[in-house]
Amino acid sequence: MRRRSQLIMLLASLVAGCSQAPVFDKNAPGAVDEARLLAADSDADNWLAFGRTPDEQRFSPLDQINPQSVKDLGMAWSADMDTARGQEATPLVVDGVLYVSTAWSMVKAYDAATGKPIWSYDPEVPRDTLSRVCCDAVNRGVAIYHNKVFVGALDGRLIALDAATGKPVWSKVVVPDQKNYSITGAPRVVKGRIILGSGGSEYKARGSIAAFDPETGEEVWRFHTVPGNPADGFENAAMEKAAKTWTGKWWELGGGGSVWDSISYDPDFNLIYFGTANAEPWNPAPMGRTGDNLYTSSIVAVNADTGEYVWHFQETPEDRWDFDSNQSIILANLEFGGKPRRVIMHAPKNGFFYVLDARTGEFLSGKAFTYVNWASGLDPKTGYPAINPEARYEKTGKPFLAVPGAGGAHSWQSMSFSPKTGLVYIPVQEVGFPYAAEKDWKPSSIGFQTGIDSATTAMPADAKVQAEVKKVTTGTLLAWDPVAQKAVWSVKYPGPWNGGTLATAGNLVFQGTAGGQFVAYSADKGKKLWSFPTQSGVIASPITYRIKGEQYVAILVGWGGIWDVATGVLAGNSGSTRNISRLMVFKLGAKGSLPPPPPLAQMPLDPPPVTGTPEQIAEGARNYGRYCSACHGDAAVAGGLNPDLRHSGTLNDAAVFKSIVIDGILQHQGMVSFRSALKPKDADGIRHYVISRANEDKKLHAK
Ligand code: CA
């Protein structure tokens, strides 16, 4: 009997041993393991991970394409995408196969040399998910490990696909709920685990980052970025410490601090670094929020094995401006203060460039990389900002036009670093935002939870004002010296929301623009050496790879994202806002061309006459600002993606308008019912407001 039970135990342990053995075939597609990821820098042919290497420098050692040869760069192949929303993804290339995610979290694989499609996967994200995401149906990329491709779907699933076939292996909801949380960021792979956060700090989200088993999707660890309700007890000492920096009942709305984009890794220190989003709601007053609110708007370092807190550096204490710190975190070895230092370089939304010690988080230096008016500077010892009292708009009771604003001096568009030039290449934005505290604001059951009065600050139908705001809303490609903390060269663009950057050993920097050009500059001087018209604005980041000795450059093209859906007349500041979604791949000597772009429909405004009372219109403006403007655009002026309500035929019919806003008849297209927050008379007020706006603009354009 004893022998038999011993035998059973032995057999059981053998079976367990088998099931734990990683399924990994070195000769099958997606043959990426831990050793390969750690040695990515010397693997110039491939682009194995989101930022190419764990330090996320987005620097390639390839130099076949260089200032002498770049004039011969042409299009090798292109692939039209079957989505028409913002394309933000960085493609990956592994052993001759290019993998890319698109809007709606779809994933596609191509022969990286010829463009021949290999497989395509659609997670069939419900379209009404759009009503719970701030910034379009975007996805920033996939991870590849052990013959699998990992994608975070917009609706909060982490999905593992077979790298050979694109067939799902497993799929798991990895967010606390699918009403307030969404995923747009690329997963990373650290020590054989999939690392991923989520978004939702404009809804009711409590930020966190977690590690998952690549074979099963099982959660291994999770680190929360803000404390929960103290009555429930704290998960760890870091949460207890953080709770001392909050007041009010922040947990009722989650608190924010989402980890929606940047994640870097230093194997020597065994640290995972990530950025956290704004505190929630933006306006601190309604929830009685005071204090620094750790660990929002911060960089946090955790133990790569356990997810345990190691250090943090908060860039924007007492955030009330949506100053996410989720932008690219680049690790590098710099000569700093006469000594070699392993540093973190960061250019968050708040407009300051930070250099931190990567082991300890010590603040080494910080300087504004663009015009900043919310703070007058940083404490040279601690990096703590000197906040302009006028920027505390909920205290003064007066609107404050902050520069930068919620769009950020730099957003998710990746920056890159060249160890050859020692420069960081930042897609900078000169964008303001008028913050006004909404009086008597209360959380609602649907929509943005910001406590901001978007009706009062909506763009007026005044040509002079619009022209002035457009003129100062611009973009810049900035080459920044992180040691001297100063600009070395810059290129000015007519509008913000230009693409991420790629630096190469060929002394080149590549960037796509909002105006629809893919451009190569010399990395040392910023001289424009080459460009290619892309027919649509570019917001994603380029990559480069090599097959059979030939260097390729790839970029996913397709205008969209928050700048299109929410900024009204400013959405078109760089030119056309239309979306033609396409992957474009270039190499030397190629002569490919694009088909002519489809004709652009120019619809005149033809609204019904104004019949609403001034009270109805004012009430409609308030509700529009709160519930509609984040998708249909400030002051009812949409970008290129979502319906521009000023043109809507439903303005003529109160019953139809009500059936959409209250009854949700267009739910399958992403326009959900707002019944939980609005009454039929509110819907009619919104209709009257949009009619009023359409008539104002018709008059404006007739002048
Ligand atoms: Ca945010």
Model description:
With 703 residues, this protein is α+β, with helices and mostly antiparallel strands. Among the domains are: 30-173 and 497-562, Quinoprotein alcohol dehydrogenase-like superfamily (Methanol Dehydrogenase, Chain A), CATH 2.140.10.10; 178-411, Quinoprotein alcohol dehydrogenase-like superfamily (Methanol Dehydrogenase, Chain A, 8 Propeller), CATH 2.140.10.10. Helix content is 14%, strand content 28%. It contains 9 helices and 37 strands. The chain has a 5-stranded mixed beta sheet with strand order 1-31-32-33-34, with no helix packed on it. A 4-stranded antiparallel beta sheet has the order 2-37-36-35, with no helix packed on it. Helix 7 (614-632) crosses helix 9 and helix 8 crosses helix 9 (680-702). It is globular. The termini are far apart.
Provide the CATH topology of one domain.
Answer: Methanol Dehydrogenase, Chain A
User: Approximately how much helix is present in the residues?
Assistant: 10-25%
Q: Name the CATH class of one domain.
A: Mainly Beta
Structural class by helix and strand composition: alpha+beta
Low-confidence stretches: 12-19
What coarse outline follows from CA principal-axis ratios? globular
Q: Could you tell me the radius of gyration in angstroms?
A: 25 Å
**Overall mean confidence score, pLDDT:** 94
Q: What molecules are bound to this protein?
A: calcium ion
The major beta sheet can be summarized as: 5 strands, mixed
N-end to C-end Cα span: 98 Å
Task: State the helix count.
Answer: 9
Strand segment tally: 37
Instruction: Name the CATH superfamily classification of one domain.
Output: Quinoprotein alcohol dehydrogenase-like superfamily
Tell me what portion of residues adopts beta-strand conformation: 25-35%
CATH architecture of one domain: 8 Propeller
For the largest sheet, list the strands in their spatial order. 1-31-32-33-34
